[in-house]
Amino acid sequence: MGRSRLVVSDFVMSFMWVWSGVLVRIFVFKILGLGHGNGHLGEFLKAAFSVANMFFFAFLSKVTRGGAYNPLTVFADAISADFNNFLFCVGARIPAQVVGSIVGVKLIIDTVPEVGRGPSLNIDIHRGALTEGLLTFAIVTISLGLAIKVRESFFMKTWISSLSKLTLHILGSDLTGGCMNPASVMGWAYARGDHITKEHILVYWLAPIKATILAVWTFKLLLRPVKEDKTGSKSKSD
């Protein structure tokens, strides 16, 4: 029952995530009318609402006891889990997130088709893969560090994570879209019909997945000497 709840939560949160980004843009640029003619005010408000949006989804994740909208989040946990949990994440949770994103984007296009066509690759495929890989490596490493260092502080953990994601998104927005979320990109790519192209698979799936694995392994490698030192110190004191 708990696993079924997680799959449903992942579907719903992924569906809501693609909608939330569109609603932020509509509210700032359409309803408030803060476009390019208003200097940086529109972009500032968009960034502020984006951070608030990430706080809202962090709260949803807490309420649903682990629900997620990003495959990289569950994949990072699955790497360290046992084989059954790994299969559950890869075979059920990630597909649920992808389907939720596809359904959400389809509804967006049918409802407000003028919002755009989603993130796009504006550089060559190799630099695109490197960009998404570096951005993913950075955010996964930050998330792993926060999970250990500020585990008990929901506000501080979410604040640092949100600002980090926003900063990395801005850095990569003109190159690849700065997505760091394969499911969200998949929804828009599926709507455009280019979800099985080499560019999409390599840049938005393979590169982030490899970067996630590397980040988890690197983090474990860096933490291992600390644990050994603590064990050694305890033995000497005994």
* Radius of gyration, in angstroms, nearest whole number: 19 Å
Q: Please describe the biggest sheet, giving its number of strands, its sense, and whether it closes into a barrel.
A: none
**Uncertain regions spanning at least 5 consecutive residues:** 226-231, 233-238
First CA to last CA: what distance?
46 Å
Number of strands: 0
Can you give a write-up of this model?
It is built from eight helices and no strands. With 238 residues, it is an all-alpha fold. The chain is globular. 32% of the residues are buried.
Structure summary:
The chain is mainly α and 238 residues long. It is built from eight helices and no strands.
Provide the fold topology.
Elements: H1 2-31, H2 41-63, H3 71-80, H4 83-111, H5 125-149, H6 154-172, H7 182-192, H8 198-237
Helix pairs in contact: 1-2, 1-4, 2-6, 3-4, 3-8, 4-7, 5-6, 5-8, 7-8
Name a few traits of the molecule.
disordered C terminus, mainly alpha, 238 residues, single chain, 0% strand, 79% helix
